[in-house]
């Protein structure tokens, strides 16, 4: 009952998948067995009554053609059986097609998920780079503003060791005690160590704050100084700093002009 193209697909699937052919054969055998059980054999009296109702000549023709080929009429159940086989085969086709579509969608979804994850990573990296760039721009703008401010005094801190090239710049307001440092020319601090800034009045050091370990390239605001600071110095202390400097760990120093 199916068009040739669909019937060909069913046959091809049966050849490709033996389990489908086995299932179709089993179902067909079940329906055929049921049809045979439901078949009804007419009684002998039916033929006698039928022949008696025909005219004499018709009866003679019937007797002469008694040996003619008899065409067996399939019961309705057998016709339904054939339709059921095709319906089951079509269901298998639908199941296979649905499975193939689901598999394709799953693969596409996995690929899309991977692409989204990569895009999110790239976006996060880009955002981080933009944040760092904005921080550098802000630092530069602050440095330019401080350098152009007539109330700010620049104090250069040079290395205390002649064979070591390292320095830092202090920007200090003598009137207000506002204090900034540019530590970009200092080398990274060793693990467990941190740079600490000091200002000296009459030779007495006072803590001016810890220099950031993770942001040494930016202008940093330090603690406010007392009036009369005569010198600034940086030591390399244990991380977190100390209340008094370790003079053996002195890195750079500079006098206020």
TrEMBL record:
Pfam families listed in its UniProt record: RskA_C
UniProt keyword list: Coiled coil, Membrane, Transmembrane, Transmembrane helix
One Gene Ontology cellular component annotation held by this UniProt entry: plasma membrane
UniProt domain Anti-sigma K factor RskA C-terminal: residue ranges: 87-245
GO biological process, one term: regulation of translation
Transmembrane residue ranges: 86-106
One Gene Ontology term of the molecular function aspect: sigma factor antagonist activity
Stored PANTHER family: ANTI-SIGMA-K FACTOR RSKA
This protein's name: Anti-sigma factor
Species annotation: Lacibacter luteus
């Amino acid at each position: 009952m199916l068009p040739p193209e669909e019937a060909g697909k069913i046959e091809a699937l049966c050849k490709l998948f033996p389990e489908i052919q086995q299932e179709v054969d089993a179902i067909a055998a079940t329906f055929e067995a049921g049809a045979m059980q439901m078949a009804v054999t007419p009684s002998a009296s039916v033929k006698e009554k039928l022949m008696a109702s025909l005219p004499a000549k018709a009866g003679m023709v019937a007797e002469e053609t008694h040996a003619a080929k008899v065409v067996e009429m399939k019961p309705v159940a057998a016709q339904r059986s054939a339709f059921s086989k095709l319906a089951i085969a079509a269901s298998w086709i639908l199941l296979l097609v649905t499975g193939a579509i689901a598999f394709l969608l799953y693969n596409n979804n996995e690929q899309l998920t991977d692409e989204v994850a990569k895009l999110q990573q790239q976006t996060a990296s880009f955002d981080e780079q933009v944040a760092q760039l904005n921080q550098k721009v802000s630092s530069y703008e602050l440095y330019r503003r401080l350098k152009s401010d007539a109330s700010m005094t620049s104090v250069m801190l040079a290395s205390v060791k002649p064979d070591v090239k390292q320095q830092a710049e202090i920007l200090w307001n003598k009137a207000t005690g506002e204090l900034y440092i540019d530590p970009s020319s200092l080398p990274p601090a060793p693990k467990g160590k941190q740079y600490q800034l000091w200002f000296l009045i009459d030779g007495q050091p006072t803590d001016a704050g810890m220099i950031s370990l993770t942001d040494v390239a930016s202008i940093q605001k330090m603690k406010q100084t007392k009036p009369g600071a005569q010198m600034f110095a940086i030591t390399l202390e244990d991380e977190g700093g100390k209340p008094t400097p370790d003079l053996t760990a002195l890195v750079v120093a500079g006098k206020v002009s």
